[in-house]
Amino acid sequence: MAEDGGKKPVLETVHADGADEGCVTFVLHDEDHTLGNSLRYMIMKHADVEFCGYTITHPSESKINFRIQTRGGIPATEPLRRGLNELSEVCQHVLNTFQARVNEFTERQEQPMD
């Protein structure tokens, strides 16, 4: 399963026999509960998602099986992509807010005390 000189893929898809594109298991390598739980939350917020869950295959393996089932014939890749984008936006907002507060604190520390 190694590609391009032994580098394994970050994402694989597993389709069950007879399942449509709305029912897919994604295997995310080198990930754990940090991404799994937050991504599951972001995806489950949408009405077109019937089920979203993940499992850690084994504590010694750093990969998760991430299952998405959708309604209305929507491919499971759409909520995955949307969830990843929304999670990225939330993380960027947290980073920006944190950096702004650090800057405010630093400026206050540099001002002389009266």
Walk me through the structure.
With 114 residues, this protein is α+β, with helices and mostly antiparallel strands. Helix content is 40%, strand content 24%. The chain contains two helices and four strands. Strands 1-2-4-3 form a four-stranded antiparallel β-sheet, covered by helices on one side. A hairpin with an 8-residue loop joins strand 1 and strand 2 (23-29). The longest helix has 34 residues, at 77-110. It is elongated, with a radius of gyration of 20 Å. The N and C termini lie far apart (66 Å). The relative contact order is 0.15. The model has no long low-confidence stretch (mean pLDDT 90).
Structure summarized in a few sentences:
This protein is an alpha+beta fold and 114 residues long.
Number of helices: 2
The gross shape turns out to be elongated
Strand order of the largest sheet: 1-2-4-3
Secondary-structure class: alpha+beta
Backbone CA Rg: 20 Å
Number of strands: 4
Order of helices and strands: EEHEEH
Most strands sheet: 4 strands, antiparallel
Helix content: 40-55%
Q: Residue-averaged pLDDT, rounded?
A: 90
- Note the beta-strand portion: 15-25%
Low-confidence stretches: none
Q: What is the first-to-last residue Cα distance?
A: 66 Å
Keywords:
alpha+beta, 2 helices, four-stranded antiparallel β-sheet, 4 strands, about 110 residues
Architecture blueprint of SSEs:
Elements: E1 11-14, E2 23-29, H1 33-44, E3 49-56, E4 63-70, H2 77-110
Antiparallel strand pairs: 1-2, 2-4, 3-4
